[in-house]
Recover the amino acids of this structure.
């Protein structure tokens, strides 16, 4: 594997406990997938809770969904899908040894994450303005809620979208990290493990939003 | 080293065209779910299953092509699948508990 060092930039050295680069790549990826399982189970707990209480209080959940603007969720869905595409393209361009295009793709991905968070910011502040807070903090009189336990719906809403939002911010930070490493010349078609791992994380953020959008905004 | 050949076929590069097609399908399905939302009253009880069916199709597209699971090892697919299996198990037993015990005997 002496040909590995023909690429410009920082060469990646395979850690000594791996047989070769491929062994390292496959091991890292398996670790990422195990991590993804914990993500599915963490969000899954919230989804299960939502389903159960939605079945117990269908009218209250329907009232809660009325306070959400599907257009905001719709725009954010389009933004996240587009960001997933640019993330995938970032890896594609590294596989093709085109780091400049990869940098542009990753930068667009971060920008999309930022747009998503700005839309979320406006959604949250609008709700705070109306007195819509999670659980007991919800101002039933000010909101004019038909159901006294409407705070439960917004408990789910803030926990689920909030945890998702934290993931978007984390993902943006991780993409920024691999963006700088791409500029530094760390990655090429032989070694891009970190970008692949961050990519899988970013796609799971998209994946969770794909279910949150109909659950919160459309069906209610 | 004799392992060079393994690397050549191990990393499948998805063509650019495929990524664009998958993204196009994801956008189209997002529009479809919003169009369906406007007919919620006509759809009645089917509204929620249709919305989640569309979401599931979108999720599968993301998993297979964007997350590269289509070309990943069987082990990684089993690992990720196990996550959904245990999630289904959680939903099943929680539901069973709520509707056979709590709903019957509790004032919750």
């Amino acid at each position: 594997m002496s040909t590995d060092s023909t690429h410009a930039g920082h060469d990646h050295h395979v850690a000594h406990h791996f047989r070769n680069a491929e062994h390292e790549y496959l091991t890292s990826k398996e670790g990422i997938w195990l991590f993804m399982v914990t993500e599915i189970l963490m969000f899954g707990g919230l989804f299960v809770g939502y389903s159960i209480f939605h079945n117990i209080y269908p009218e209250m959940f329907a009232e809660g969904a009325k306070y959400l603007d599907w257009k905001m969720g719709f725009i954010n869905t389009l933004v996240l899908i587009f960001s997933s595409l640019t993330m995938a393209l970032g890896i594609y361009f590294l596989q093709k040894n085109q780091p400049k295009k990869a940098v542009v793709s990753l930068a667009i991905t971060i920008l999309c994450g930022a747009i998503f968070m700005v839309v979320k910011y406006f959604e949250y502040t609008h709700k705070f303005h109306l007195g819509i807070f999670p659980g007991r903090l919800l101002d039933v009189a000010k909101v004019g809620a038909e159901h006294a336990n409407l705070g439960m719906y917004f408990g789910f809403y803030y926990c689920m979208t909030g945890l998702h939002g934290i993931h978007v911010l984390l993902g943006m930070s991780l993409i920024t990290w691999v963006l700088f490493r791409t500029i530094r010349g760390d990655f090429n078609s032989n070694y891009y493990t970190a970008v692949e791992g961050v990519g899988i994380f970013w796609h799971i953020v998209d994946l969770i939003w794909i279910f949150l959008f109909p659950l919160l905004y459309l069906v209610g | 080293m004799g392992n060079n050949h393994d690397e050549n076929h191990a990393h499948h590069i998805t063509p650019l065209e495929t990524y664009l097609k998958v993204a196009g399908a994801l956008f189209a399905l997002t529009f479809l779910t919003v169009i369906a939302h406007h007919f919620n009253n006509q759809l009645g009880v089917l509204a929620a299953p249709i919305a989640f069916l569309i979401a599931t199709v979108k999720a599968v597209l993301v998993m297979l092509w964007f997350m590269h699971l289509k070309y990943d090892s069987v082990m990684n697919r089993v690992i990720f699948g196990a996550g959904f299996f245990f999630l289904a198990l959680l939903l099943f037993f929680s539901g069973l508990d709520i509707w056979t015990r709590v709903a019957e005997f509790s004032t919750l």
Q: What stands out?
A: The domain at 18-219 of chain A is CATH 1.20.120.80 (Four Helix Bundle (Hemerythrin (Met), subunit A)). Confidence is low (pLDDT under 50) at residues 1-7 of chain A.
